[in-house]
Amino acid sequence: MTYCVAIKLNAGLVFLSDSRTNAGLDQISTFRKMIIYEKQNDRFMVLLSAGNLSISQSVREILQVEQLKDAGGGPPITIWNAKSMFDAARVLGSAIRRVHERDAEDLKASGVDFNVSLVLGGQIKGEGMRLFQVYSAGNFIEATSETPYFQVGESKYGKPVLDRVITPETPLDEAAKCALVSMDSTLKSNLSVGLPLDMVVYEVDTFQSNKVVCIDHENPYFRMLHDNWGKKLREVFDSIEDPMWTGGATQVPLLTPLTRNQPLRKITSPEEKLI
Amino acid sequence: MTYCVAIKLNAGLVFLSDSRTNAGLDQISTFRKMIIYEKQNDRFMVLLSAGNLSISQSVREILQVEQLKDAGGGPPITIWNAKSMFDAARVLGSAIRRVHERDAEDLKASGVDFNVSLVLGGQIKGEGMRLFQVYSAGNFIEATSETPYFQVGESKYGKPVLDRVITPETPLDEAAKCALVSMDSTLKSNLSVGLPLDMVVYEVDTFQSNKVVCIDHENPYFRMLHDNWGKKLREVFDSIEDPMWTGGATQVPLLTPLTRNQPLRKITSPEEKLI
C-alpha cells in the first residue's frame, strides 16, 4: 500500500507521499509516489499515485506525451499546454484509459484488478489552484472548501487529525505539519507505509516551488514532530479525567439516567432469552 | 459497519462497542453489538460482534444452547459449564459453524459473503482472564501481553491511540478512557459507526461486574472527553513548531543534506524523461 495526502488551502497546496510499495509482506521496495511538473511562470502541478505500481508507472510515463483532441479545432491538449487544471485532469484520465485498454484484460485474466488512484493538483496561469482525485476509470472529482483535502492509499489512520485541523484558512506551514502528523499516525499503525517521505508546499500564484523535501528517518524536523506528538498526546491523554463509576466528586459522571437506551441487561443463565 | 474494541490488562478487561448497523447508506439502524454473560462467583464473559447482522444474531442465539461433546466422556460442554475460556471460545466457534452450515450456501447464491467477526473475553473460575478473536470459520486467536487488545469492524481510525497508550500495566479506568478516545476518533471520521455505545469494565477475579454503561450523546463524561480531546489535541498541534524551510533559527531543520535519497527532481518540459 501507500499513503498520500494533498491539501488545498487559500494560501496554497501541500502534497505529501510515502514511498513503500509491497507485493505481499516479503517483497517490500521503495518507490516514490510523487511527480512534480513545473513550467516556471506558467504552471505548477503535482501528481500523487497509489494502487498497482505497474499501472501507475505506465500512467505517469504516458501522461508526459498524452494528447486530447481540442473540441475548438486548436492544437491537441497536453498537460504542458492545457489552459486549465480541469483539462489537465482530463488528459490524466485519458492516460489512465490508454493503460486500461492495453493491460486491463490481461490483468483480469491473471485475477488482478485494474486498480490505480491518483491525485493531481496545481495551478495554471489564468485560473486559481485546483485539486483533483482521479479514479481507475479516468473519471475525477475536485476538492472544494468543504472538503479541502484528498487522501489515497491507507487513508484511515491519518484521517482524524486532518478532519480536526484542516480548513481552507489553515496557513501553509501548519497544514504541512498536519500532513506530517497524519503520516506519522499511519506509519505507526501500518507496515505497508514507510519512509522516506516526499513533501512539496506550493504558494498560490507563484507557478513554481522550491519547497521540495525528502524526509527520511534522520530528518531533524520529522523526528522532533514524531517524538513530541507522541509525548504530548500522552500528556493530553493523562490530563483528561478518568471515568468515575460511583461515588467521588465529578462534574462529568459516566453513569447517568438514560431516557431512550438502557444499559445492557446481563444474561445470567442458559435459559434466559436474548433481548 | 461497526466498531468494537476489547482490551486485556493485568487489572481486568475493558469492552466497548458502538451500535450502528447499516445496509447501504439509507438503511441505518441501531443494534447493540455486546452481550454480557454472568454467573456470579463462577464466570463472567462478554461477546462483541461485527459483520453481517443476520449471522451474528443467529450465532448469539445459538450460542446460548450450543453444546460440544466432551472428549473425556463428561457432560456436553456449553458456555455455562466450560472449565476454560478456551473451551468457551470453541463452543462459540461451533455455533458459528452451525450457522455456516445453515446459511452459507444460500448467502453465496445471493452474492453475500459469510462474514462475521467476534471477540469473546472474560474469566472462568480456576483460570486467569482470557481474550479471543473468533473468525468466520470458527477458528480463533488469543490476546497476549504483546498484543493486549482486539478490534473488530472499522478498526483503523482508532488504532493509533491504542498503539500509543495500551500496555498490560495500564490501569483499568485509563484503558476505558483510551477505548473511548479510540471510539471518538472513529465516530468523527466514519459515518457507519454511531452512538449509543456500550461499555463494560471487569476487574480481575471478581466474576461479576456492575461497571456496565450505555453512553449516548448526552452522557456528561463522553461529552467532556470528546470536547477536551479535540481542544487539547489542537493545543498540542499548535505547540509543535511549524516546519521552517529556509533561514531563521531552528533546532530542527526540515531541509538537511541527505545521504541516500535526494529531493524529487522536477519535470520541467514534455521532453524530459522520468527518473
The whole-angstrom Rg of chain A is 23 Å
How many domains of chain A? The number is: 1
Largest interface: A-B, 91 and 91 residues
Report the span from N to C terminus of chain A: 42 Å
What's the helical proportion of residues of chain A?
25-40%
The sequence of SSEs of chain A as H and E is EEEEEEHHEEEEHHEEH
Name of the CATH homologous superfamily of chain A: Aminohydrolase, N-terminal nucleophile (Ntn) domain
Mean pLDDT of chain A: 92
The rough form of chain A would be described as: globular
The name of the CATH topology of chain A is Glutamine Phosphoribosylpyrophosphate, subunit 1, domain 1
What's the total helix number of chain A?
5
Q: What is the name of the CATH class of chain A?
A: Alpha Beta
- Oligomer state equals homodimer
Q: Low-confidence parts of chain A, pLDDT < 50 over ≥5 residues?
A: none
Descriptive keywords:
5 helices; 5-stranded antiparallel β-sheet; homodimer; 24% strand; Glutamine Phosphoribosylpyrophosphate, subunit 1, domain 1; 275 residues; alpha+beta
Fold and architecture overview:
Two copies of one chain form a homodimer. In chain A, the strands form three sheets. In chain A, strands 10-1-2-11-12 form a five-stranded antiparallel beta sheet, with helices on one face. In chain A, strands 5-6-7-8-9 form a five-stranded antiparallel beta sheet. Helix content of chain A is 29%, strand content 24%. In chain A, helix 1 (53-63) packs across helix 2 (85-109) and helix 4 packs across helix 5. The first copy, chain A, is built from five helices and twelve strands. Chain A is globular. Chain A has one domain (3-233): Glutamine Phosphoribosylpyrophosphate, subunit 1, domain 1 (4-Layer Sandwich). With 275 residues, chain A is an alpha+beta fold. At the A-B interface, strand 5, helix 3, helix 4, strand 11 and strand 12 of A face strand 5, helix 3, helix 4, strand 11 and strand 12 of B.
